[in-house]
Amino acid sequence: MRRAIIAIAATAALMGIGQAQTPEANVAGDFVTVQPTDILSYNLIGLNVTNNQNETVGEIKDLVLSNNTLAAYIMSVGGFLGMGEHYVAVSPSAVKIDYQENNKKWVATMNATKDQLKAAPQFKYEGRWKR
Question: What is the C-alpha to C-alpha distance for residues 47 and 59, in angstroms, rounded to an integer?
Fold first, then answer.
């Protein structure tokens, strides 16, 4: 009888340990299905942005997320070989991103000139954003 009680107690203790280590079930909302029409960030970083006259006006250097939402593209503007360029934060609604199936490449366009982008408020990589 004594052995039976010890065996039951040991079994109960082991079951408690096993249950304590079992992870909680994931909530269905934790996962998403990526759609074929979605864009991955690596497709955007380094992408040249052209205007309606097919002039390159900048390059997407970074993405700004605010409250889990795309808030801006950081674009480099002006300069040559990294010298004299500065950065501006551009609204995602101002940049049209498309995938050209026939060329198998991403393109970005916006209705702005180089001068307009050079005159835009400058974004600086400093403080918490320092590179």
Answer: 6
